[in-house]
Amino acid sequence: MNTEVIQDQLNKKVLDSLAEFIKKPGLACSSDVWRQRGSEIPTAALMLGVNVPDHAMTFRSLCNLLQDSVTPFVVSVHAKECAAVKLLIQKVLEQLMGRGVSVDEEQEDDTALLQKTQCTISALCQWYKTVTKERRRQENKCTQVSPKRKENLAKNDLPVVVIFKDFEAFNSQVLQDFILICSRYTQELPFVFIFGIATSPSAIQHRLPHSVSSLLCIEVFHSLSCTQHLASVFDKLILNSQFPFKLSSRVIQVLVGIFLYHDFSVQNFVKGLQFSMLEHFNSQPLSVLCCQKHEALLSAKILSKQNVERIRHLPSFMRYVETQEPQEQVRLLTNDEHVKEVCQKLLKNLHTYHKNYYPILQCLHSLTSSLPKFPLGKHIRELHVSCIEKNLWETEEYDSALQLLRILAKDELVAALRSCAEILKSANTKRMQNVLQQLEDFLGRLEALQGVSSEDSSGNGVVSAKMEYQRTDLFQLQKTLLEKESRRTKRMNPFEVLRSQVIDFIDSLVREYLTPAEFQPLNEVCYYSSSGVLRQRLNVTPRTSIQAALTHPFYYLKNESLKTNTGTISSAAPDLCIVYKLHLECGRLINLYDWLEAYVTVMSAAEDQDTNSEECGKFDSLKHARFIQAVSEMEFLGFVKSTKQKTDHVARLTWGGC
Amino acid sequence: MALIKCPGYPEDTLRSLAERLPCRETQLATLLALMGQPDQYSYPSVFIYGHRATGKSHVVLSIMKDLELPHASVDCVECVSSGLLFHQVLSAFFGPDAAALLPRCPSLSDFVRLYKQMSSNSPATQTRYIILDRAERMRDMDFSLLPALLRLQELVNDNVTVILLSEIVWEKFRPNTGCFEPLLFHFPDYSKAELVQILSWDHHPSYTPELYASYINILLGVFFSVCRDLRELRHLAVLNFSKFCEPLEKGEAKESDIHKLWKNIEPHLQRAMQTVYLREVSSVQWEQQFFFSPLPVVLSAHAHIELPYYSKFLLIAAYLASFNPARTDRRFFLKSHGKIRKTNFLKKHEKTSNHLLGPKPFPLDRLMAIFYSVVDSRVAPTASIFSQISSLVTLQLLSQVGHDDQLDSPKYKCSVSLDFILAISRCVCVCVRLYRYQYYKFLNDTQPYI
């Protein structure tokens, strides 16, 4: 799955405009001498949104783009590396000069000398001059450039782009000093800054005082918001019949939930998708059938006996068997070859189901996405989830959506149907072409009505205006709808008749094609549905797992002797677990000696009952040592810490327990 | 214009210099008088101070450049170590070879020694000048550096003068007793008439200077009350001039119709007033806005930040933890808090608003406790919840108090405003007001008057 390509496409627009911006200043300066913006450093403030994990990719592609098309002098700095101005300058110099050296080997001794002397921007200035001179000479030597272009080259030198990846995290003093220093050299060194800002443009004003920000000529660029980003990734990867691998509704809900509730990171979403794919192919042996159609058919022919048995145990297949005639049922349960044949047929059905499902889903979404209050969801993913989860037409939301559709004004209806027709054109199955034909037929009839029903459309206009007015109250809406319904039975004009036909047609389409995937036989082959595993893996809870490990060591160690019923403390458990369980019974301050006593009691209870008291003393030093080790492990895990409030006591850092 | 005379310097250069430095003739004359003839010893150190954009560096550097005096101009911001300063001075006076002789981490005495050595080889025929711009930064450097530079003439036994430029008065510099007092010299702010004179200098080549001068007059009429910074005014003048000329280019008005032009430009200037000093719109974007939309979109209006769902709640919880006293938590966040006596709850001595006192630090535990009571659904304490806290810190919406490497019980502060929180809580349908101690106190205080 080539998600990077998709992401690149999405970012292309903003990145291109950025590249344009960086190319521009050289020209602007020469043409607009009057402006005297000499000392202003052109600066692009790139608004990236709070999804910080995704930024790395954007910056990588930005760097590549700039290096390919604008200038080789691109530096990107991270706040972590630049705690002081000196370090920041050093970083910039290292990246620039290091790159220069690798390009041009003659200058190696030269730059080495520079690095030995001083790490300043003036040194960079010298280096830049020599490099550009060299470059120009080479260009003149290599190709006989046209005089006009030569002039152009002479005029605008290649800019030096400094990218501040995480603007917010930079120390503002460092930034101010760096900008002040750079502004002194703008005449010789054409700097361009790019600030990667996660929050809002006002962050610049919060960090830089006026005396510094007046040295910058800031332009703001907005990248695509992460929700739009997600929507397009979702469109391309999940709502697509091309990929045989599918997600069940629960899994989608988990992934989207992580995205919306936790991080806004598309990259993490894609990683989750990849993980679920791995998990699916790993855990489901029948996933051999989850591939492109012809390959799937081939592998269905050569299914092993074991896999055939597995197919028979699939719930969806069992359901399918139950619907067959008794004779057929017997054959399906006994004859392997027959199962394979049926399996091929079912796989074919599954593929056609998918091919028809997505166009109709998109049509329904385009019809309902403009309705007030979005009864079927604002995003197509919500619609998709509810479609594959249950019978859509049995839900209340669907009813209300259809009712709203039934009172759509004519021009809205025509526009919606047009967009549906567009979507269907790209679908290339026979049935979809059929549907398209019918749809176009409806469209034609609607248009033919144009002349006839001019006064009707005005009547509808009133209705829709009324709708707008009552949008706030669903109850009222329902009432008016019912009224409308009763009135319509009395007197229907040709448009209304046609409209109800169209809606019925759409309803029939939904009932035919948008059946839940769970009812499709063999859906387990393609659909990954263990959302619990996914949640456990992606949305980890370190604290609960540590607590689980300490209270129920069997959970992780799988040692039979550790199996205990809750509430008791087994002495076979690791020392740490015993100490942990004992400490749960204490208050905020724990007396170490009492704790040790309790520990020894537990330990000796396990040992043979007949140990006399003398031997106890002998073992004590060993137990003592083990106890001390366990306590220090507890301290390391952050459950207790030493305290000065009371001697021989430690403080508990967690609360709760008994 | 009073002719400036100074023996030892070519007269026509002086005249052109005076022409290039409008409204600074007196300062120029005084400086030249101070410097004396090129071969005479000058005062060891001069301290020039004045507000931003009063022409301090410009005047000094123009004198140096036009009269071709030997000088080293150093910006102290650039000097992250004193070694860099020495390096720049030496290479300006004696060439880069001399500067290369400096050891790796040069001390002051290294510098003095090397300077002496070099100046004995090539003694000064003219006074050498060391110009230190933004001298206030020197205070952060080595404490002995400033006193030594003030007496550099004595130390190196050479005809050298140190000129310090700063925006701060000398009283804030004075290192300790016994330090050499430099000559203090103040550059006053420009008056309105002077600003007009200077701004009229960069008139557009395709229009008459008179028109530009009248434009500047209009501009200053609007902005002079809020902004006297020459640089900012210049920026504004450039930004809005094309708008001013629009009727002229369309042929709707002539250059003499000043009133008509004023009517045209005035609303735009009023609007530009809102963004003085902000520089949030680049000049290019500013011009484009006039073509596309009648009202420029002010960028600070975009202050809304989209956050993940739980991050919003975390931020709300952080805000409440920062501004509510900890003892009121029981009242606000516990379902069955029991009866808490009102007098106890609302302490009289907390007269001042919590907002005036600023956010208070709170431990992580308290944040999480409030978070769980604000969020209505059950949330598992997953790793991503905790990583959201640290990402809020990197976005500087929260700030961590104390050491970064504090593992047990880190403390945070909320660094966003009430408006921001109210906007967020509107998104997630939480009534922050119900939880705000300040709000309760307000109600209680106003009740007697209602």
TrEMBL record, chain A:
GO biological process terms on file: DNA replication initiation
Location of the protein in the cell: Nucleus
Residue intervals of the Origin recognition complex subunit 3 insertion domain: 302-530
Origin recognition complex subunit 3 N-terminal domain mapped to chain residues: 3-289
CDD domains: Orc3 (cd20704)
Residues of the Origin recognition complex subunit 3 winged helix C-terminal domain: 543-655
Protein name stated in the entry: Origin recognition complex subunit 3
UniProtKB/TrEMBL annotation, chain B:
Alphabetical keyword list: ATP-binding, DNA replication, Nucleotide-binding, Nucleus
Residue span(s) of domain Orc1-like AAA ATPase: 20-163
One of the GO biological process terms: DNA replication initiation
GO molecular function: ATP binding; DNA replication origin binding
Ranges of residues in domain ORC5 lid: 212-279
Keyword Coiled coil in record: no
UniProt-listed InterPro entries: AAA_16, ORC5, ORC5_C, ORC5_lid, P-loop_NTPase
Source species, domain of life: Eukaryota
Domain Origin recognition complex subunit 5 C-terminal: 307-434
Main location: nucleus
Family according to the record: Belongs to the ORC5 family.
Function, in words: Component of the origin recognition complex (ORC) that binds origins of replication. DNA-binding is ATP-dependent. The specific DNA sequences that define origins of replication have not been identified yet. ORC is required to assemble the pre-replication complex necessary to initiate DNA replication.
Subunit structure: Component of ORC, a complex composed of at least 6 subunits: ORC1, ORC2, ORC3, ORC4, ORC5 and ORC6. ORC is regulated in a cell-cycle dependent manner. It is sequentially assembled at the exit from anaphase of mitosis and disassembled as cells enter S phase.
Protein name: Origin recognition complex subunit 5
UniProt source species: Cyprinus carpio carpio
